Every structure is written in C-alpha cells, then in structure tokens.
Amino acid sequence: MRAIFRSYDQLTKLVGGRIFESAVLLLVRVSLSGIFWRSARTKVEEGSWLTISDTTYFLFAEEYSGVPLPTELAAQLATVSEHVFPILLVLGLLTRLSAFALLAMTMVIQIFVYPEAWWSVHALWSALALVLIVRGAGALSVDALLLKVRTK
User: Fold this and answer.
1) Does some domain include residue 11?
2) Which of 20, 40, 63, 85 is exposed most, by the fewest CB atoms within 10 A?
3) Handedness of CA 106, 37, 70, 54 (dihedral sign)
4) How far is C-alpha 7 from the chain's CA centre?
C-alpha cells in the first residue's frame, strides 16, 4: 500500500511541477485564444485584417441586438477585442488582463445574446479564462520574461 501512495505522490509532484503547469497553461491560452480568434476572423472581410463585414454589422443589429451598446460600436469592439486579446494570450503578454477581457465578453454574450448556452459553451470558456486569471501565463510566456527583467 505504501508503494501505491509513494507512486501517487511522485506522480502528483511531477504534474504539479513548474514545467508541466507551464505547458498546461500554454495549452489553456492557445485553446481560449483559438475560440475567439476563429470568431474574429468571421467578422471581417475575407482577405482583410480588420475591415468589418456588412454581415457582421447586420448580425449585431439583428441577432445580437440585446447587447446594450450601439450596434456599430458593439461590432467594432467585439471585432478588435477578438483579434487583440487572443494574440496577447498566445504570447502570454498581459495574460490576466486579456483573459479577464475575454471572460467579460463571454458574460456579455451569455447574458445578452445566447443565455441558453451556459452549459454547452460559455461555462467552458469561463473556466479557461478563470484558470488564466488565477494562475497567470506560466513560465512559457512574455509575462514570465518581463517578470524576470523587472526583478533583476
């Protein structure tokens, strides 16, 4: 029985270590980024970086009309945010701020656009964002490099 506990303790120590945690946090950052990046790319004209499509403006005027912002502003904020924050997350730069921004977007979508999507989608997005808000980016990030520079 002691051998089982010893093996379990060794495994716990391995997966709780800095290297494994940093790899998992990188996966969380990339996963959350991918969700919002793919959404961002559907909002712009094909072949452009940030030229918002007429379809996007239409969706914000009709399907997303519950968002308590002017249609044009909501479309622009969502499009820019869905491009900027995923890039920052992948880099691990301003990770907690970026994750918080995407969590706020998720809550706006949950409350004003798709309130029925909590268990099917938004709970997972929220969990990913909250992990990053609580734990940060990990050692494999620009945030970690900047912390090293600041503390020297």
Assistant:
1) no
2) 63
3) negative
4) 35
Residue 104 lies in a domain: yes
Could you read off the pLDDT of 1-30 as tens digits, one per residue?
Answer: 888 889 998 989 888 889 999 999 999 999
- For the entire predicted model, the pTM comes to 0.93
Question: Would residue 143 count as lying in a domain?
Answer: yes
Q: Is the separation of the CB atoms in 146 and 139 below 8 Å?
A: no
Chain-centroid distance, C-alpha 96: 10
CA distances from 112 to 23, 63, 97, 125 (A): 34, 10, 22, 16
Do residues 92 and 63 touch, judged by C-beta distance below 8 A?
A: no
CB 113 within 8 A of CB 64: yes
Least confident of 3-12, 83-92, 102-111, 117-126: 3-12
| Predicted local distance difference test score (pLDDT) of residue 34 | 98
Residue recorded with tokens 């403006």: 57
Percent of the chain with pLDDT over 90: 88
Number of domains in the chain: 1
d(CA 1, CA 3): 5
Sign of CA dihedral 89, 91, 96, 98: negative
Structural domain for 112, as ranges: 22-150
* Residue 132 domain flag: yes
